[in-house]
Amino acid sequence: MPIDQELRDQRLHDHALRFRALHAGDDVLRLANAWDVPTARLVAATGAAAIATTSAGVAWSLGLPDGDRVDAAAAIERVREIAGVVDLPVSADIESGFAATADGVHDTVSRVIDAGAVGINIEDAAHGEDAPLQSPGEHARRVTAARAAADASGVPLFVNARTDTYLLAVGPESGRLRDTLDRAAAYIDAGADGIFVPGVTDPETVAALVDGIDAPLNILVGPGAPSVAELRDLGVARVSLGSAIVRAAYGLTRRGAIELQEHGTYDSLRDELPYGEVNALLGA
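Request: output the structure for the sequence above.
Response:
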């Protein structure tokens, strides 16, 4: 094996072990999700311990809607670009696997690892199907395929299995916690290392999820959610901003454009980054 490939493989392995350890530390793993090279470098410069992508941000930046609408090759290339410019573990949001079958998920995950990712999020939302979620069995098969791809690569990939029971308000509210815990158990048995439950932030439910899931719990945060310190006290291992930052960026774009058109002023843009600083992110 060429020395450069050996060094790359060792770096990937080291990053994977480092990323795993971040889920078992005393503090909460904080992920401000990026979607391209500049945002990844901005996040890395804050002292972040790792970089996670947002599928929504990647899709929107490619001119496409989120929800399994992005070509796998384009999404994986974005992972490769990000992993190539930050010396941090990178986790890739691969939606439901960019594939129609578990075999396809195996292929996707192999390619994502080759692109430099040491973690993935894989969700059980059934985009475009009759039901809002895949069956627990179907998603478990996808998780198993992801685990098998990682094992074949030799990279201890962190598989974060996401269930959208709360995000999509699936089923009666009274049974949602039980459904989430049952799905989490099935995904862990299938090879998941962590469970991601977006759409829930109330402390009582979060505490019940922590208590009932035998794996690190990831919560989606944003304005109105408990602080990281509060979530740490509840036992949460990982928090993600998801698409919040990219949506805030688009919100600023709209505010700036409206202000220009309607008032002829520019005050909403006072907090912009200096031109030279942004240019420097790309090596200028």
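The two ends are 34 Å apart (CA to CA).
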